[in-house]
Structures are given as structure tokens and as C-alpha cells.
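Sample entry (68 residues):
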Amino acid sequence: MDTLSATLSHLLDSVPYVIAATVLVVSVIQKVMGQKMPKKSIARIYLTFGLLAEFFFGLYHYLERGQM
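Predicted structure, serialized as C-alpha cells:
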């Protein structure tokens, strides 16, 4: 049960940042292009930001423990 609560807590901490970054980047791209982006492209941007954010969150937590 501790693992589940830690996972949900992590998701609630990280997902808003990924969504906000995706919305900002997609808005800028759509403004520059002058047309709406396909949902497939928006999903790829979201997943890319998610992977990058998780990498940096993991790196931060790893270094915070003093493991390096």
C-alpha cells in the first residue's frame, strides 16, 4: 500500500508540470503554424515532455539521497 500511495503522490506532483509544458508548446506551435496540430502530434509532445521530466525528477531524487 505504501508503494501505491507513493506512486500516486509522485503522479500528482509531476503530471501538472508536464501538462502545462505541453499546453504552452502546442499553443506556440499552433500560433506559428496558423493551424491546429493533429492529436497524434500533441500526444507525442506530451510523452516526450513526460519522459524528460521523469528523467530529471529521478536524477534529482537520486542526487538528493547523496548516492553519487
